[in-house]
Amino acid sequence: MLTLYSYWRSSAAYRVRIALNLKGLSYRQVPVHLVKDGGQQHSPDYLALNPQGLLPLLVDGPTRIAQSLAILEYLEETQPQPALLPRDPALRAQVRALALHIACDIHPLNNLRVLQYLSTELGVGDEAKNAWYAHWVHSGLAALEQGLGVFAGRLSLGERPGYLEACLIPQVYNARRFNCDLDAYPRILAMTARCAALEAFKQAAPDAQPDAQ
Ligand SMILES: N[C@@H](CCC(=O)N[C@@H](CS)C(=O)NCC(=O)O)C(=O)O
Q1: What CATH architecture does domain 2-82 belong to?
Q2: Which atom of ligand 1 sits closest to the CA of residue 103?
């Protein structure tokens, strides 16, 4: 049985929940509250498992894997069907590039620890912090919107979602949570709407998690 250390609102954990569901893999969740007690990700018990103090963490027998995209790659290699990545090498590289765009160039700038650092260490007020958040969401999503043109209105696997959508839908969730207006991104919205109707995504959604508040 796979174990996922997760938090309902963690978008990086949300990526992994989607991937596990798309592959039809069962798993149990261990909730790690990112805010309570100063953040349980900083507890000695959790740091012993993942010294980086970030979610998600997947445990498969003796193997512990941090970093959501490393987990997606692991799942793809150990449980190849149904595939999350396209077969064609060029398309596969483009999917990875778009996923990295989200995971490396949008998400980390607006992560909890960055927002906390802005407030508590640099004394940035809420208005400026929200402007920071919206700036990185919009600059990232505007470029992503162009990049999605390669799929010509379809999903990254044609009629099926996979690796890309596992990253995109959690990023859209984050943007909406912080009231970013997404009307300028019709491709992103169309992909999100198609995925939202699927069971794998419904079951992975933050509000559907056992630790949702
Ligand atoms: N690059 C990492 C990012 C992991 C990450 O930033 N996780 C967030 C939740 S979405 C976290 O644990 N934040 C805790 C904190 O900021 O203290 C991944 O893709 O797994």
Answers
A1: 3-Layer(aba) Sandwich (3.40)
A2: 19
Atom of ligand 1 nearest to the CA of 71: 20
Q: Decide: 103 in ligand 1 pocket, CB within 6 A.
A: yes
Name the closest-CA residue to atom 14, ligand 1.
Answer: 54
pLDDT, tens digit only, all 213 positions of the chain: 999 999 999 999 999 999 999 999 999 999 999 999 999 999 999 999 999 999 999 999 999 999 999 999 999 999 999 999 999 999 999 999 999 999 999 999 999 999 999 999 999 999 999 999 999 999 999 999 999 999 999 999 999 999 999 999 999 999 999 999 999 999 999 999 999 999 999 999 999 999 999
The reply to whether ligand 1 has any atom less than 6 angstroms from the CB of 21 is no
For domain 89-201, the CATH class is: mainly alpha
* 56 CA from centroid of ligand 1 (Å): 7
Burial pattern 70-102, b for ≥16 Cβ within 10 A else e, equals ebbbbbbeebeeebbbbeeeeeeebbbebbebb
Which regions of the chain carry the CATH code 3.40.30.10? Answer: 2-82
Shortest-distance atom of ligand 1 to CA 56: 20
Rounded to two decimals, what is the model's pTM? 0.98
